[in-house]
C-alpha cells in the first residue's frame, strides 16, 4: 500500500482555497509555551539548570555556568554535576537566595465589556480570567482592578511580587482612558478637572483631560496616575455625569496596539524590563 498519499492528504487538509488556514489565538486559544519542567517518566524530577532558569534569575545556559562554579546548592550542598536532577520539593539556592521553579508568566489582555477580571467561568458565564486560562499552567491573577462594565487593558501574572508592587506604586501608574458620557461634557467642568477636582475631600490630579478629536463632546480622553479605587468613575459622578463606555487604552506603558478586543499576548522582554523598574 502506498502510504505517501495519506501524508499528502494530511497536508491538503490544512489548506483552504489553496491556502493554509490560520489558527485563531483569540479567546484563550493562543499557543501555550512548553514549559517542559518535568521529565517524562520522572514526574517528580527536573533538571537543575531548568529549575534555576525557571526561577527567573538567568537563562538555562547561564545556569550551567553557575552550577559548574558551585554557586547552586541543593538542600545545603553545592552541586556541580551537569544534568543533575532535583525534586520540586528540594531546597535550591543561588548564592543563598531561595529559588522558586515555577516559571513566571506575564499576559496582557484587551478585556471586553461585561466580564469580571477574576473568578473562573461559572454557570455558563465567561470571565476575563477565563479568556487567559490557557496562557499558562500557573495560576494567574490580575494586577489591580478593571470594572466589569469597563473594557481595555489588564495585566495577568503569577508574579506575586510584581502584583504587590504595581498595585500600590509610589507615584501611581500611567493610565489613559477613552470615555463616553451620557451627555456633552461642559467646558466649565473640563476646566475643573484640569485644575484639580476634589473627590471625597481629596484633590485628584489629572495629567491630561480633553475632548476626543473629530468626535462628539460626549467623548473624553483622560490621562491619570492616581491609584484610588474607581477614581475615574467618581470624578464624573461628582460632576453629575454617567459613564456610558470606558476603555483603558494605555496601562503602565503597555498599549492596545495589534491587540484586538478579547485577545491576549505575552509581554515582550522590553515591556517586562520597563515594568520591573517601577517602584
From TrEMBL:
It holds the Pfam family S4. PROSITE patterns: S4. One of its GO terms (molecular function) is rRNA pseudouridine synthase activity. It comes from Euzebyella marina. Residues 32-42 have a biased composition (Polar residues). Residues 1-12 have a biased composition (Basic and acidic residues). Residues 1-44 are annotated as: Disordered. GO terms for biological process: enzyme-directed rRNA pseudouridine synthesis. Belongs to the pseudouridine synthase RsuA family. It comes from the Bacteria. InterPro entries: PsdUridine_s_RsuA/RluB/E/F_cat (IPR042092), PsdUridine_synth_cat_dom_sf (IPR020103), PsdUridine_synth_RsuA/RluA (IPR006145), RsuA_PseudoU_synthase (IPR050343), S4_RNA-bd (IPR002942), S4_RNA-bd_sf (IPR036986), TruA/RsuA/RluB/E/F_N (IPR020094). Keywords: Isomerase, RNA-binding. Residues 46-103 form the RNA-binding S4 domain. This is rRNA pseudouridine synthase. The lineage of its organism: Bacteria, Pseudomonadati, Bacteroidota, Flavobacteriia, Flavobacteriales.
